[in-house]
Amino acid sequence: MNMKKYFEQGMMNLLEKKNIDSITVVEIIDEVGSCKGTFYKHYIDKYYLCCNCLEHNVYGAVSVQASSWKEFIMQCLGAFEKHAKVVLHAFDSKDVNSARRQHEKLTFEFLAKKYVANGGDPSSAINMITLKLYSEAVTEIIYKWLEGGCRESGEELYGLICAVIPQTVFKELREQIA
Asked: Residue 15 to residues 8, 68, 78: CA-CA distances in angstroms?
């Protein structure tokens, strides 16, 4: 097993117990039994490690090539539910490099791609801002779901996510939303 795998497993172990903002690089190094030089050889900071960790251990079941918004969201929810505590603790930070911001970016990219493919105007700043804000709202809804112990079904949460979709987005994506 290479060092990156050890660091990712160490991060998974730590995220099971506490949120990303309270984890230190020293704790990660101690968890792995390595040194700072090795950590910084592979990672810029703990947030970068966290994002890589989620990408390899959680997001594997999520496809940005999903055919619809529902498929994308249901894939996210299924993957997140399997690792609920880890994802909750990873999403607990709003740092610019955090996993939460990474998910917002992934969601935005999925929506923007579908929006443009369905005739939406990519040069419309207001529509791109709307997609960005909606992506943040979706991530917050998922975070609250994780925080609440994933009590609602994926279908119920998907319904809530669709209920708050802005009309400008809905008009362009209505076939993708169904």
From this structure: 10, 30, 18
Q: Which helix (H) or strand (E) holds 48?
A: helix 46-57
Q: State the Cα–Cα distance between residues 147 and 142, nearest whole angstrom.
A: 9
Tokens 């791109």 appear where?
A: 128
Q: Which of 118, 119, 114, 79 is nearest to 99 (CA)?
A: 79
93, containing H or E segment: none
Sole residue written with tokens 């076939």: 175
* Chain centroid to CA 26: 25
Instruction: Quote the CA–CA distance of 39 and 36 in Å, as a whole number.
Output: 5
pLDDT in tens, 32-84: 999 999 999 999 999 999 999 999 999 887 877 788 889 999 999 999 999 99
Rg, Å, the chain Cα set? 17
Q: Which H/E stretch holds residue 150? A: none
Report the phi/psi class of residue 22: left, alpha or beta, with left for phi > 0 and alpha for psi in -120 to 50: alpha
Neighbours of 113 (CB within 10 A): 13
Residues in Cβ contact with 93 at an 8 Å cutoff, skipping those fewer than 6 apart: 19, 20, 21, 47, 99, 100
